[in-house]
Amino acid sequence: MNKDPENTRTKIMNAAESIILDKGFGGTTVSNVIEEAGVSKGAFFHHFSSKAELGEELVQRYADQDAEHLEQTLVKAEGLSDDPLQQLLIFIKLFEQEIESLEEPFPGCLFASYLQQSELFDHKILEIIRESMLLWRTRVLDKLKKIEQKHHPRQDVNLQSLADMLMVIFEGSFVLSQSLNENKVIAQQLSNYHSYLQLLFDSSN
Amino acid sequence: MNKDPENTRTKIMNAAESIILDKGFGGTTVSNVIEEAGVSKGAFFHHFSSKAELGEELVQRYADQDAEHLEQTLVKAEGLSDDPLQQLLIFIKLFEQEIESLEEPFPGCLFASYLQQSELFDHKILEIIRESMLLWRTRVLDKLKKIEQKHHPRQDVNLQSLADMLMVIFEGSFVLSQSLNENKVIAQQLSNYHSYLQLLFDSSN
Q1: How many CB atoms lie within 10 A of CB B154?
Q2: Higher pLDDT residue, B102 or B44?
Q3: Which helix (H) or strand (E) holds A59?
Q4: CA-CA distance, B33 to A38, in Å (whole number)?
Q5: Where in chain A is the domain with CATH 1.10.10?
Q6: For helices A185-201 and B185-201, what crossing angle results, to 10°?
Q7: Given this structure, which CATH class describes domain A1-48?
Q8: Which of these, A203, B7, B10, B62, is most buried using a 10 Å CB contact count?
Q9: Whole-angstrom Cα distance, residue A195 to residue B78?
Q10: Residue B151: which pLDDT band, with cuts at 50, 70 and 90?
Q11: Are the beta carbons of A196 and B198 separated by less than 8 Å?
């Protein structure tokens, strides 16, 4: 008898996420997941009715963790300065430091992995991903609007696309970092974004 | 008898590329490709010994086209100004205009698609992708080094990571554009990169 069902469930999900980031959802089988997680086929189907259900729960968990990470980092940055520009610059620095402190290469983004095989997923799953990206847009855009009230941008800029640029830099850096096997790409690109925001809004530069 | 073998070959490759961009390489079967291309199984295996061989030839073709596109756009930009900063700014604008003029949504990047399933590919294929990304790095970095000799950057900047940022913006924009179903993301992000370079190097800003 399984005394720790939640642990088994988490083990299956972690194993599946890791395999999907290497092989894609389409290339991942239930057998792969069972083997990697070290659980029985019975245990797998006790927790998930199908690979499709696992796929949906994985992306929902990923989206929840992503949103929590975003909010926590934003709250932390807001606690370190009263100025919205400094808050956003600190927010980016916190991600930069976090990524620099990782010992393992960054494993990639489950959203991007799913989107590369979007034909395999239903509308509900693609909507979870879309909502996650819109959350980043909204949160960063709110901050940029406050920044614009205090700091006149040195160039005309579309604030929404400037907000999107953070997500773009994350996603693009994951691709380049993986291809070149250079882990530092992500932190370097965040640093470029930081520098761009300073040049745009920080009159002391 | 097939009177136009080159055309059949191209038809197969175009169909395969399009399906792989939707489903991933792992989720694409020879049957899918045959059906989409409207060719016989015999014709397929006359041209390709396996799906793996097709996968390799596809990425090689994509890399060749990508390199040619890069060089042609660079030559065009170099013909429009003598100043290296203006050349790079024009180079980015040319991509921006090209993407804005597309009637169909941008189909995505075959490199990113392959990298999301990197376990399915051998070293040779991953090396083709790596070399393509390094070519972009080298070409843009060469230009940035010439810019730096004439224009002192307004902030400390790592020129290599600034060169990489163009590829990062392309790849990240493809992800965001696909998820949000907003085609304009790519041109907007190229415009942000353009603005960042101006702020860094153009003293008239």
Answers
A1: 17
A2: B44
A3: helix A51-80
A4: 36
A5: 1-48
A6: 70
A7: mainly alpha
A8: B62
A9: 27
A10: very high
A11: no
Domain B52-201 in CATH 3.40.50.300? The answer is no
Question: Is some CB atom of chain A closer than 8 A to the CB atom of B20?
Answer: no
Please check whether residue A28 is in contact with residue A16, taking contact to mean a CB–CB distance below 8 angstroms.
Answer: yes
Q: Over 80: is that where the pLDDT of B197 sits?
A: yes
10-residue mean pLDDT profile of chain A (205 residues): values are: 75 96 91 96 96 96 97 98 97 96 86 90 94 98 97 95 98 95 94 97 78
Which residue in A119, A170, A171 is closest to B23 by CB distance? Answer: A119
pLDDT range class, residue B102, cuts 50, 70, 90: confident
Supply φ then ψ for residue B69, to 5 degrees.
-60, -45
A130 in Cβ contact with B180 (< 8 Å):
yes
A177: CB partners within 8 A, 6+ apart: A105, A106, A183, A184, A185, A186
Q: Do the chains contact at A108 and B116, CB–CB below 8 Å?
A: yes
Cβ contacts of B189 on chain A, cutoff 8 Å: 161, 164-165, 168
Q: Which helix (H) or strand (E) element contains residue A173?
A: helix A159-180
- CATH 1.10.357.10 intervals, chain B: 52-201
Contact A136, A70 (CB under 8 A): yes
Q: What pLDDT score was predicted for residue A36?
A: 96
Distance to chain A for B43, nearest Cα, Å: 26
DSSP state of B182: -
Percentages helix, strand, coil for chain A (3-state, rounded to 5) are 75, 0, 25
Q: Output b/e per residue, B84-122; b: 16+ Cβ within 10 A.
A: bbebbbbbbbbbbeebeeeeeebebbbbbbbbbbbebbe
Residues of chain A with CATH 1.10.357.10: 51-201
Q: Which residues of A touch B188 (CB under 8 A)?
A: 158, 161, 164
Burial of A183 (0-12, 13-18, 19+ CB in 10 A): middle
Task: Round the average pLDDT of chain B to a whole number and report it.
Answer: 94
Token output for B95: 């991509």
